[in-house]
Structure formats: C-alpha cells, structure tokens
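Dear colleagues,

I hope this message finds you well. In preparation for our joint manuscript, I am sending the Polysaccharide transporter, PST family (Asanoa ishikariensis) sequence together with its predicted structure, so that both groups work from identical material. I would be grateful if you could confirm receipt.
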Amino acid sequence: MVSAPTAAPPAPRKPGVGSAIGWSYVLSGGRIGSTVLVTFVLAKLLGPSEFGVVAMATVFITIAQTILQQGLVSAIVQRDKLTSEHLDAAFGVMVISGFVVGGAAAALSPVWALVNREPQLTTVCLALSPLVLMQALTIVPEAVLRRELAFKSVAVRTLSASVVSGVVGVVLALLGAGVWALVAQSLVNAFVGLVVLWTVCPWRPSRRPRLGAVRDLWKFSMHSANAGLGSMLSSKADLIFTGLFFGPVATGIYRLAARLPDMLVDVTVRSLQQVALPSLSRLQNDRPAFIRHLTTLQHLGAITGLPLLGVLVAGSGPLVGFLGPQWAGTEVPLALLCLYGALNAYGVLLGPALQAIGQPAKLAVILWTRGLLGVGVFAGVGTLLHDSTAARQATAIALAAIGMQIVMNAASVWVTVSRAVGGSIPRFLAPTLPAVLAGGVAAAVPLLFDAASVSIEPPLLALFVYCAVAAILSGALLWVLDRRLRTLVRKKLGGRLSWLPLSHPRTGRHEA
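The corresponding structure tokens are as follows:
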C-alpha cells in the first residue's frame, strides 16, 4: 500500500515580501560591491585576452548549467502544493543530471576550443567543468529558501562566496597566475557557496525519489527549462558570437564593458526578480492585484537601476583611463551597454510574471525568438567586421544588442502586460518615467564638464567627481519628480523624515 505524500514541513514563520526584497537587495548589493572591487583589481592586473578566454569558457559551462537550473527550480517555487517527495525527487534528478551533463561538458571541451580556434579553451573548460555538478547540488536547497522568501540565508551564502573567491583571485593574479586566477576565482566561489548553502538550508533529502513526484513537476519544468535554454541563448548570443568571430581580445573588452552594467542590473532589478516569482505566484488568481504588484516591482527596479546606470555612463571615460592602456577603447561599448542594461531593466521581471501565472510556454517563445534573432544579427555583425579593431568589434556588437533589445522589449511588454495579465501598458510604464529622466541627466554630466572646459586629473579623481555630481543631480531630480518614491520613503521612515519637503512639485500641496 502506497503511503500518502507527506507535506513538506512549513517554515515556522515566513518572511514577508518587504523583508524578502530588503534581503534580496542586501544579497545582490554585497555581492556586486565585492565583485566590482575584485573586477577592477583583476582588470588592472590582467588584460582583455585573459578575461576573454575565461568568458568564452564560462559561456560553454553556462550552457550546461542552464540545462540543469531553470526547469525544476521554477517548478518548486511556483507550485502551490509541494511535498517532501517532490523535493527528494528533484534532488535525485539533479544529482544524476549533474554527473551526466558535467561529464558531457568535459568531453566536449576540445570541440568548443576547436570551434573558437583557441587551444587554451580546452584546459580552461576542463578545469571549469566541476561547476556543473556543484550547480546541480545547489539547485534544490536554494529553491527551497527562495520559495520561503528566506533571502537572508541566501545572502549569507552568496556574500561569503563572493568575498572568499575574490581574495583568492586577486592573490593569484598578483602571483602571476594569469588566466588561472580567474578560473580559481570561479571554482572557489561555487565551492564556498555550496558549503554555506547546505549549512544554512534546513532541508535534507530523506528518502528515495518517487516517480510520481517527478511526473508532477515534469510538465511545468519542461516548459520552464525550454524557456531557460531560450533565455541563455538570448542573453549569451552576443558573447558567443564575439568569441566565435573576433577572438579573446574583443571578447574580453566586450565582457568587461557588459559586466559592469550587468552588475548594476543584478543589484537593482534582478534583486527584485528573485522575489518576483514567489511573491507574484501568491497573486496568480487575483489579476488586478497581480498587475499592481508587478507595476510596483517595475517601478522599484527603475528608480534603483536607471539612475545608477546613468552614473556609470558618466564615469566610463575616467574608469577606463584608470584601468590602463590595455583597455583603451572600452569606454564606448561600456556606455552603450549601460543603455542596453537600462532597456533590459524593462524585461527582467516579465519572465517571472509569465511563470507565476503558469504560462512558461509563452516565455519560452519570446526568449527563443530573441535568441534566434540574435544568432542572425550577431553572425552578420561578425562577418562584416571580422578585420576591424577589437574595440570597434565590441562596439558593433553592443549596438546590435541595443537594437534587438528595443524590438523584443516592446513585444514582451505587449504579450505579458496586455495579453497575458490584462493590464494597461501606459499605466505599467508611466511610474518609471522620472527614473528615465534621472538616468539621462546623470549620463550627460561629462558634457557639462566639457561645456565648462573643466578637465580633472588623474583618472581616479575624475571618476569620483563625475560619479558624485551625476549621483547628486539624478537623485535630486528623481526626488522632485517621483511622487511614488517620496511616498515610499515616507512610509518606510515615518516621522523621521518629517522635515523633508514632501509637497507636490507642481501644486505645492502636502501629499496624503
């Protein structure tokens, strides 16, 4: 006689969505802060070629990790009724898949090196292949923590891994390890994260997997895994084709230029993405509340992300000057990829929204369309600019990415907000307009200094001054224009901000 499935033990007290968002920002903020510092130091010590080789290898490993990561995680987080049998089944599948996919990645490493015409990729990919198994061992416990909105525990794991791996990478770079400093950083990050995760997660596998439990998760996870593969292709096609057509130097320039805006999007909008799926899933049967919450999350992402991306544009020139002549020409793709990041901020939350209402198939169609479009566009750019300089090649890829993002964002917002959820697109976008203006003002700060004929040296001082002025101007403009922001701050801090001018900028009336 088959025993009835045992309900997974609930957490004694679930954190609220507000607490989860706060810890999600701590999670991403601490990780990005440490990673930015480490990236600057490593870029100063190493060069574009080392960054490019590791970026090309990391893309290969990411393909394998994506096959594992996307499907069951979303199924665990989104599922209304989750039992211990579901978790045990998912973990068993992940362990087996980790060995199989990791072994396949190691075996195919020479093929990836041959395709990219870069012999060093074989050994680098082989060295990074254990990341696949380590990823498989983290998927279920991390999904459990995210389902319970336990982002404080996730933050402990992520921050610990970032700090320890950053120290290891910098020390090895100082010792002259070159590309292997970056390889060791990735491996140590994954291993420390794995150990800390299993320390902070209370869940443990307790029995052999049941096939019935696997089937319960299979339908949703297959659609979600399909979407995950499409997401990987759409988000990595630029890097893949930069490596295939242009080699490690252009790839290194593009990767550094893309990584800094990516980090800002991570700490702002993707921090909300981590909360979006579990919090929106709770509202999947109340569409008016669902669209209101999605609009609130998008507004939060815009006011935190767009001004910061504008500040990064302002500091792009001095930053590249500080990193050294080996990175000359990176400032243009860096500024362009900040614009790409700003556009991306409007697409990050749409995927979790479709998953939360049980429509991952639509997400898969959007992502695969974008990915296949990217294959054609980036292959065309690679063919046309094969003999150009590395900086021009990276710039061309960035421009192509921006054009694609505009087209696909428009389609994604229409499908998700208007068709799937039944909301109003103007009402969804309107609250973010003050953030757009604030980001634009921040990005224009170097033009103000040029118009005033003010030159600041050395580059590190110029970086500080440009970014400080950009942050002050964009922050002040955002505060004046964004009523939602002022209301949010007043609600969070209460009477402690009673002395601040909270009146409406046009009417002068105090806001209720």
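For the figure legend, we might mention the following. The chain is about 80% helix and 0% strand. Confidence is low (pLDDT under 50) at residues 1-13, 502-512.

With kind regards,
E.M.
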